[in-house]
Amino acid sequence: MIIVMGREVTDEQLGTVVNKLEAAGLTANISRGIERTVIGAIGDERKLTPEMFTPLPGVESAMHIAKQYKIVSRESHRENTIVDIGGIPVGGKQIQIIAGPCSVETQEQMDLSAKFVHEAGCRLMRGGAFKPRTSPYTFQGKGKEGLDIFRNAAAKYKLPIVTELMDARQLDTFLEYDVDVIQIGTRNMQNFDLLKEVGKINKPVILKRGMSATISEWLMAAEYIAAGGNHNIIFCERGIRTFETYYRNVLDVTAIPVLKKETHLPVIVDPSHAGGKAWMVPALSQAAIAAGADGLLVEMHPTPCEAWCDADQALTPDELKALMGTLGGIANAIGRSL
Amino acid sequence: MIIVMGREVTDEQLGTVVNKLEAAGLTANISRGIERTVIGAIGDERKLTPEMFTPLPGVESAMHIAKQYKIVSRESHRENTIVDIGGIPVGGKQIQIIAGPCSVETQEQMDLSAKFVHEAGCRLMRGGAFKPRTSPYTFQGKGKEGLDIFRNAAAKYKLPIVTELMDARQLDTFLEYDVDVIQIGTRNMQNFDLLKEVGKINKPVILKRGMSATISEWLMAAEYIAAGGNHNIIFCERGIRTFETYYRNVLDVTAIPVLKKETHLPVIVDPSHAGGKAWMVPALSQAAIAAGADGLLVEMHPTPCEAWCDADQALTPDELKALMGTLGGIANAIGRSL
Amino acid sequence: MIIVMGREVTDEQLGTVVNKLEAAGLTANISRGIERTVIGAIGDERKLTPEMFTPLPGVESAMHIAKQYKIVSRESHRENTIVDIGGIPVGGKQIQIIAGPCSVETQEQMDLSAKFVHEAGCRLMRGGAFKPRTSPYTFQGKGKEGLDIFRNAAAKYKLPIVTELMDARQLDTFLEYDVDVIQIGTRNMQNFDLLKEVGKINKPVILKRGMSATISEWLMAAEYIAAGGNHNIIFCERGIRTFETYYRNVLDVTAIPVLKKETHLPVIVDPSHAGGKAWMVPALSQAAIAAGADGLLVEMHPTPCEAWCDADQALTPDELKALMGTLGGIANAIGRSL
Amino acid sequence: MIIVMGREVTDEQLGTVVNKLEAAGLTANISRGIERTVIGAIGDERKLTPEMFTPLPGVESAMHIAKQYKIVSRESHRENTIVDIGGIPVGGKQIQIIAGPCSVETQEQMDLSAKFVHEAGCRLMRGGAFKPRTSPYTFQGKGKEGLDIFRNAAAKYKLPIVTELMDARQLDTFLEYDVDVIQIGTRNMQNFDLLKEVGKINKPVILKRGMSATISEWLMAAEYIAAGGNHNIIFCERGIRTFETYYRNVLDVTAIPVLKKETHLPVIVDPSHAGGKAWMVPALSQAAIAAGADGLLVEMHPTPCEAWCDADQALTPDELKALMGTLGGIANAIGRSL
User: Fold this and answer.
1) Helices and strands: H and E segment counts in chain A
2) CB of B40 within 8 Å of any CB in chain C?
3) Tell me, what's the pLDDT at C6?
4) CA-CA distance, D298 to C76, in Å (whole number)?
5) Could you tell me the pLDDT band of residue A52, with boundaries at 50, 70 and 90?
6) B270 phi and psi, to 5 degrees?
7) What is the largest CA-CA distance in chain C?
8) pLDDT band for position A68 (50/70/90)?
9) How far apart are the CA of D92 and the nearest CA of chain B, in angstroms?
10) Is residue A47 predicted with pLDDT exceeding 80?
11) E-state strands within chain C
12) CB contact under 8 A, B4 and C65
């Protein structure tokens, strides 16, 4: 940690900071400049927060220089981690496209969806049984019945299933239905109690980025899961909130190379929620794979116009198939496979 | 709802939209312009979502024109609602300043805090027992023990207490300690399961704005609580996330007159989390009251430099007292009292 | 234009709106719903602004439904426009990579740069002679001398040159040196007087997106140029400003398919200013091309560490060459060529 | 400047950084920690940019610790600067409300406006002759004729006039009409050539904040003006761009105490452009004054509904008068006067 002291710092003020550092078990290096004096803390700075120092007299600012995340950081683990989902590797050379409808509606809809997901060449399936909706007056998901329908539909094609957990009290039900991948949604990225719960189990977790979460907060949220013992974490970029109103969110492709540098864990992208319109999905999917994403979480519905939620962002089965073709070409161009 | 059809719309495309509207029990008014054709939906549009129409051929856009929130809207209830907290009114002519430390640390710290809160002339007290922290490696709050300490300290001065609920599983404990006001934090504004739970009880709820929540999403989050039957809701603006890095958040004062127009419920402001620095708190507090806020949620600590969390944003007891004086003058200038 | 009238609208209020519409030469369609009454304006709504109606009694909101931009819109011109730069087409099947240093430093540096740009297979060259710098105390560009150096260096390889115009008073100098493409920088996207000036000449213009400009404002800025008669406009996405602090800007890839839908003009991307770090440039470049961009504006410097400005974002000549190889593969995968 | 070196830094890498620092005339202090090594630069760091170091091998990050602005900083000038505008002080104990219409329309409209401005007790008048409009197809201002009309109208009440300069080529006309205060609009905050020009004259300048400019960029923009010799600069906060769509901009009240800490120059607020609606103006004005602003730039129109631009944000003469009353009370409450 670096502590910057203002222009007219006194020896007493310096002493107070140094004492506080030493009380925490670190030592201080003092560098007197012309306009500022800088104190460098030597030792394990994770014990410190900037707020411990900024209210002290004479202190202008304080900042961490070491990363606050440990287990998920690439510094702690140089090699890429490959998360295994029922035999399907995420994070290796092979790219995984996880497809399926926004929400579980009926057995027929899910059976058809599973068939189309499989035929398009995808190896994992998504679908929501518990749905976070902005309005209390709209469809809130089929709940437990939805998990049952989803399990049945996916079983025929041996597709591992990905679905969202919104509340710790539903976790037992998720384990009962043996959900293969637990998705933590954007609104729950900093639901720390929920993160702690999924940190205690050994199921892979897809951690979506909060709508306006910084890279650093996102990595710290993953650290909450990892600190509990569960290291099977997959980051999922899904668009961030900005001033632009033409599209729902801005897909942050820069997050892909940045996460690849900061963490050893896999990174996937949800192009459907990012743009919010089906016609944007191919371009965004292509961009994500070209930028180095390990996979996609993409919405496909047998008949999008009839979908019970987010009807305007689902691809048709044919569109998904066409997209898979293009993505295969891009994967090859960057030395990967689909 | 308004549905805008593109330039070269066909009769068949218009027919599909009209049929979908009629199937939902509404009727259609068609207005043919030169560049666009507009369909107005007549009936209860809360049954509709724009996504039901935007994927249909020929549709360019669809938007709600009625408000999606009902119970919390001023349209449904013209008069200001006054929330009663153990006899203290929030939302009336009198302004309430809720003060106290960021987190419960020790009995002594809380006893002192209660004394200073009372002496400054504040009628309610705040303090956190369960703390949402960005890092899993920092202090997470005293938990249940903290509630006990807080209750004891506040009792001597008959100060109703405000504290944050982070997980539905803690609700029984909150009821057991008879917490007077349950605070839903910024990270949980769209934790819909938690909102549903506090909607079922009859305790006042302070609903903090999500870090990047729009006014409309915030009102809808309150509607989740209200739809469960609990109408004792107080909105709390606490700064929003922007591009600016000098301060932690940008206090959105415009939200105050806007909420006052849109809802009958009280609106308070947290100037401490907004700016993130104690020296900004007086200016922000004054701005909030001048803009029409019904109260403040402000951090005060007996010895800020020793606070276990957010040490740089707490006022000292003397600073709080001085601020109360200035706020009283501003309250008078706008026809209210402190 | 749609004008939404509040719940308890009176006939007199409706009449005022209708009169104002008719005075502007349009007619009104009135649709009475249960909660709102909607007035649709029939006629050329570009004569209207929402502000003409929102202050009138009873009006709740007013919004355009037709696009405000005409000449640059795809509605007005269905086919892709190909901008010709000295025989090099931008906006067709072939993708153009415009490379070169951030700023013109010396003749030797520019001669070397031109050589490397040419050897990498790029057909156009960039370089700044007039530099917009945040601080008045840093290098402000070589000015007119820089144009001379740039012209000489590019001539040997017959590379058309792209450089930034910051002030209308420099335009004659730009024409004197026969600058092939005039770049309007992000800080000048809404410098309307400057836009009007470049609208009067017949040189291709690269219009960078403002740091926080919406798609709609950007299209309107282009319309300023087009309205003057110059239709040779190339849009350049260069990252937008958000809350994220890890990288300088967030490259908005979604803008690519959206602009391709809204306008017939070419769209390129500046991956160097978007990320702000050379190591991010390959991933961002690949994403941009995969998402459908017509080209890139990328920084390359013979010896990046010695660059006089933005040293940390320039590729080395070897990195540029390697990137060109990967981009060629991606171009093929989406049916284009490099 | 602080330069942070990565975990496995070598002596050679340290040497390269130290050499570069010494070549620029500074010296280095090296602090070796457990996870990072930090180099502190001792000397005048304004000669350095972080980009000079970040591309060097082993460097993880580099950051300024001294302020980049000098003349405008409070460090360089402890006392508040009072800008004198024809005898009216801005920045002292007395608060100034600058009122008038968005744009100059007719002599009659301006004569009436001047009368109402004077009667409300305001001492300065605003009005736009050259208007920056998003669309090239809307009213662009009366130009030079507008200055003439404005001068005539204001003369009768001896009101100094404030009007916007959009292009350096109009500066002579502004001087010819003896415009008392030159306003630099939000879109031109980083039009560096324009800033340099107004830096050469001795007229007071109101520098509006760019739509998404950071405090630091804004101060640097002022430094451009100050570096030319003109120190009569008034900062004007006018709302920033965020994700919120209910209002045009978010008035950033926090900027007021922050600027007061960072600079000795006056700070005023434009509540009209911030909110974009007349009904929000009183609350925002009150907040601004309560937070410590030295004045306001507020829109008033004799008949708002007939205004040629921004009709929905102008106060009526009566509303202005009422607002002045409330502001007077708030000024007193904080020890100032109106």
Assistant:
1) 10, 14
2) yes
3) 85
4) 40
5) confident
6) -105, 95
7) 76
8) confident
9) 17
10) no
11) 2-5, 27-32, 37-42, 59-63, 83-85, 88-90, 96-100, 124-126, 161-164, 181-184, 205-208, 233-237, 267-269, 295-299
12) yes
Chain D residues with beta carbon closer than 8 angstroms to that of A31: 29, 31, 40, 42
B217·A278 Cβ contact <8 A: no
Q: When comparing pLDDT for D306 and B321, which is higher?
A: B321
Do A40 and A28 touch, CB atoms closer than 8 A?
yes
3-state secondary structure of D314: coil
Contact flag C253-A214 (C-beta cutoff 8 Å): no
Phi/psi of residue B96, each to 5°? -115, 130
* Residue C152 confidence (pLDDT): 97
Question: Hey, CA dihedral for C55, C56, C59, C61, is it positive or negative?
Answer: negative
- Domains parsed from chain C with CATH numbers: 2-63 (3.30.70.1140), 74-333 (3.20.20.70)
The overall average pLDDT reported for chain A is 94
CA gap C265, C207 in Å, rounded: 11
Q: In this predicted model, what pLDDT tens digit does every residue of C87-134 receive, in sequence order?
A: 999 999 999 999 999 999 999 999 999 999 999 999 999 999 998 888
Torsions phi, psi for A188 (to 5 deg):
-110, 10
| Stated length of chain D | 338
Instruction: Compute the distance between CA of residue C156 and CA of residue C133 in angstroms, rounded to an integer.
Output: 30
Q: For residue D65, what pLDDT is reported?
A: 83
* Residue contact A132–B224, C-beta within 8 A: no
Buried b (16+ CB within 10 A) or exposed e, B213-250: bbbbbbbbbbbbbbbbebbbbbbbbbbbbbbbebbbbb
A329 touches chain C (CB under 8 A): yes
pLDDT at A310 over 80: no
Pairing relation of β-strands D267-269 and D295-299? Answer: parallel
DSSP conformation class of D94: B
Given an 8 Å threshold on Cβ–Cβ distance, is D242 in contact with A245? Answer: no
What tokens were used for A76?
């702690």
Identity of residue B31: S
Give me the total of CB pairs closer than 8 Å, taking one residue from chain A and one from chain C.
128
C239 touches chain D (CB under 8 A): no
What's the pTM value of the predicted model, to 2 decimals? 0.95
